[in-house]
Amino acid sequence: MILYLMADYHIGITQGTNILFFWSAATNFSPLVGAFISDSYLGRFLTIGLGSIFSFLGMVLIWITAMIPQARPPYCNQLKAESCKSLTGSQYATLLFPFFLVSIGAGGIRPCSIAFGANQVEQRNTPNNERVLEKFFSWYYAATAISVMGAFTFIVYVQDHAGWKVGFGVPAILMFLYALSFFIASPIYIKQKATMSLFTNFARVIVVCIKNRRVALPSGESNLRYHHMSGSTLSEPTNKLRYYYLFVSH
Description:
9 helices
């Protein structure tokens, strides 16, 4: 991408690096927001579906910037600075908007994909369920590593030898096939509904802790089971476990 920004958009290496840095930061931060939205409101299936659509639209728009000459500054001779026209505001917005869409898409796909896949294995009554789940995680991470290798080898090779039009078109087509197959297989998925908002649960914990701050901690072995693993030696819980006990038991 840095080569594309420098060669086709006449962006300096410093500005181009900053653009890609902020894009990477937004892409890595957005899964935090996506995970909250998934668990609290939309559920994993719908979050992944919307993330796939946003990612596909972002890749298509990046491909369009390579297909439409008006989306980029005109070609100029880098040795003659006076022949180079600066990047217009509309062209700059056309460049950044696809990055924004891809970051949103990553926020929907990254935090939910592995958990959604594990739900398909975990909630089906299959023999050796734990073994099947282990295989799923192994294949998931193996596929992730293979896709990264393909991106840095095959896709880069296509971009170098076939140009940006084909180089950006191939990932867009692959993203379309991924999204299409995901939605086609929708009827066979196990879909969990979103639970209560995380903020609501957190607020409930605070309210219960304040409400029960003066409640005497009961004694007796029957009340200690909340704090120990099975088979461990029973002992009185410390003050650090007091509020957790009161929330769980009340």
